[in-house]
Design goal:
- By secondary structure, the chain is α+β, with helices and mostly antiparallel strands.
- The protein has three domains: about 230 residues, Thrombin, subunit H (Beta Barrel); about 100 residues, Pdz3 Domain; about 100 residues, Roll (Pdz3 Domain).
- It is about 15% helix and about 35% strand.
- It is built from nine helices and 31 strands.
- Strands 25, 26, 27, 28, 29, 30 and 31 form a seven-stranded antiparallel β-sheet that branches. Strands 1-2-3-6-5-4 form a six-stranded antiparallel beta barrel.
- A hairpin with a 2-residue loop joins β28 and β29.
- It is flat, with a radius of gyration of 29 Å.
- The protein starts with 8 loop residues before the first helix and ends with a strand.
Length: about 475
């Protein structure tokens, strides 16, 4: 007698139909394989910063952006006020591997973004450019993952992070935020298919110059944490990796000549009927600048740039960054039109942009080991900090004091503005350099008398030479 079937024909048919109509669960992406592949787009850059008497190691995570082995680093990876010649022995290595790495060259810093660029001198074929992986389409709530990199004490070991996209905000660029950290500063974020979603970093942090009560100018920056939930969105990132400087000191930047732009308060915006757009107030105008020559005035309220209303941004201060960025996108020699509210009238002002005066990294410097004194050129930034709103201010600035030196004993401090040397008014860096060179070679001179300004107070300091 034939054995009895466990299922009827109808049951088998129903089961087959159910299996056909029921969607199968998608296979889990092989994140381990994708991680290993995309790790070849992430590097560690190591170098030394060589200053007057010390040599400090620096390291940062970067992303490989092209077949030539060029690498992008976040703005805080290297201090923007350091001259490029201080960056020594640059090497590039893969994360987590205990190797010496390959030599590299510093290409410069983009003035618009602040991002640094270096290039491998050899070995680029061992890495994969970020452009190889394609671009993700970002949507709130989507799953993102990234490659994070440990500190040097952990030999820069790479590790996996993930989170969901919580928001994208213009600050003033498109910045993505994940629910939990999804990468580390300078590294990459990907979607489930392994396409690039963005570039990690605390992109909203900027380097600043802190002016202390005694007048010293202290370059400061906030140190990035190892993990970050913020990243530069991929579309903006792909645009900005094209902005490679043509020289290490940086490309010339367009110059407007305003200082201390401030966002309009909500109360003033309501009073002026500007609730639905952005506006910035001009604090100061630099003497003989393009803005000054065109007739822009302090307290003018800028509401449009080239006919376009300034966008409304939150927080309010982002609108000033947007304005600065839009000016920086122009070329030197371009003519822009600012629509301003002055008093109760609105008017257009045409301004032809010029080349920006020297920044800190470009200032001339000299160091006198016998005195233990480093000086640098007085630049526009120094003048703005001291309410000297012009570019032809004389004197030099104390840049470095060697501990237990003659300059240190005389109570000179970094940031002191040297206005006279032995009764001679200093009109230029070259003049000061010539005098200090003479002092170093004059074996019979017993004392050097300096007139300095510190914290808006004038002091006479005596440097004993014997």
């Amino acid at each position: 007698m034939p054995s009895k079937s466990l299922f009827t024909f109808g049951q088998v048919a129903a089961a087959c139909l159910f299996a056909f109509l029921t969607p199968q669960a998608a296979a889990e992406p092989d994140y381990e394989a994708m991680f290993d592949e995309r790790l070849k787009s992430v590097v560690v850059v190591e170098l030394f910063v060589q200053r007057q008497i010390d040599r400090e190691p620096v390291s940062a995570t970067g992303a490989v952006i092209d077949e030539e082995g060029r690498i992008i680093l976040i703005d805080s990876a290297l201090p923007s006020w350091f001259p490029p010649e201080w960056f020594k022995d640059i090497r590039v290595r893969p994360p987590g591997e205990d190797v010496e790495g390959v030599p590299a060259t510093y290409l410069g810093q983009d003035f618009l973004t602040g991002f640094h660029f270096v290039q491998m001198d050899e070995g680029a074929e061992n890495y994969t450019p970020v452009t190889h992986w394609g671009q993700a389409e970002l949507k709130r709530g989507q799953f993102l993952w990234g490659i994070a990199v440990m500190d040097k004490q952990w030999h820069f070991a790479p590790y996996y992070l993930s989170g969901r996209l919580a928001a994208i905000e213009k600050i003033p660029w498109d910045i993505g935020f994940t629910t939990t950290p999804a990468t580390s500063p300078g590294s990459l974020v990907f979607d489930e298919q392994g396409r690039v979603a963005g570039w990690g970093g605390r992109i909203t942090i900027e380097e600043k110059i802190l002016v202390a009560e005694d007048g010293r100018q202290l370059p400061i920056g906030l140190k990035d944490t190892r993990d970050t939930a913020a990243f530069l969105a991929v579309d903006t990132f792909m645009e900005q990796i094209q902005r490679i400087p043509t020289e290490p000191i940086g490309d010339p930047r367009p110059y407007l000549g305003t200082s201390g732009l401030q966002p309009v308060t909500r109360e003033v915006a309501q009073f002026l009927g500007l609730e639905n757009q952005g506006a910035v107030v001009v604090s100061d105008i630099i003497e003989a600048s393009p803005a000054d020559k065109a007739g822009l005035k302090s307290k003018d309220i800028i509401v449009k740039l080239d006919g376009e209303p300034l966008p409304k941004r939150r927080p309010d201060f982002i609108v000033t960054r947007h304005f600065d960025n839009e000016i920086s996108r122009h070329a030197i020699g371009d003519t822009i039109t600012l629509t301003v509210i002055r008093g109760d009238e609105e008017q257009d002002i045409s301004i032809t942009l010029d080349k920006q005066p020297k920044v800190l990294k470009e200032a001339l410097r000299a160091y006198y080991d016998e005195l233990g004194l480093g000086i640098r050129e007085f630049i526009l930034l120094d003048g703005v900090a001291r309410r000297e709103l012009r570019v032809d201010v004389g004197g030099v600035v104390v840049d470095f004091i060697k501990p237990n030196s003659k300059a240190n004993t005389a109570k000179l401090e970094p940031g002191d503005w040297i206005k006279e040397i032995d009764g001679t008014k200093i009109n230029s860096f070259a003049q000061a350099e010539q005098i200090f060179d003479g002092v170093a070679s004059d074996t019979g001179k017993a004392e050097l008398v300096l007139l300095v300004e510190r914290n808006n107070e004038t002091k006479v300091l005596r440097v004993k030479l014997k």
